[in-house]
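seq:
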Amino acid sequence: MTSLAGAVAVVTGASRGIGKGIALALGDHGAVVYVTGRTAAAGQHDLPGTVTETAVGVTRRGGTGIAVPVDHSDDAQVAALFSQVRAEQGRLDILVNNAFALPENLTDPEPFWEKPLSDWAMVDVGVRSSFVAARHAAEIMVGQGSGLIVATSGYTGATYTYGVVFGLCKTAVDRMARDMAIELAPHQVASVSLWQGLTMTERAHRNLAARPEMTRSPVTTPSAGSSPEFPGRVIAALATDPGLMDLSGGTFITAELAARYGITDIDGRSIPSLRSERGSPIWGPLAQESHDRH
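struct:
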């Protein structure tokens, strides 16, 4: 197992779900992980999980978990988070932008004109908040001349999934990761976006139990799904890859990177790529496009 001992990470939206899984996986590799999210105490959300519980789990797994309750729609709270990281650690090696405001109606079949305008919160906490966090992280990483910024995205960046606003958000973070990579390249800071398929989070288990017909859809079939820790295993490999800058600017299917690095899920399964069924990323690595031009 590659080591992230001494590395400092921030994982946003990690009270539960994919963020929690990523934080735990980075803890497996010995990282110091700042765990952020809005749920500070049990009972504040109808799904289980708090930032404190995730941080404790990180420490139990061999890392150092630090819980910081943050509402990522509040710029001042985000700024305070990164000021804390700088003051306590003096560096930042990995930012995983995972915070997202998933509405309860996300998988409901109604068209966009029948869904509430409040669904736009997905843009505020999912796109804008990712930019704000990346801006603060970049200030630290550029100063030290290294770092990795990861956006969690999905196949919906190229194919319709659930609804208009959801697709808009995921396409936007892919492009944002790409353009940030261009500006970060001279400073040896990498930026990538990772496409997850179905991830068996607490919410996914609840939704599939309530709507079993979803299990027959290629978007939500459990047989192709991964654990929430799977992308964290891939991010750990990325962060320790000496060729990381050659990947910067790219949008990658997590399952394909896992195959590249010889990574399986926590149960030993190889997670399939759904490229042929659900579409291909738009953005390749900057280095590859530069090579192609020459």
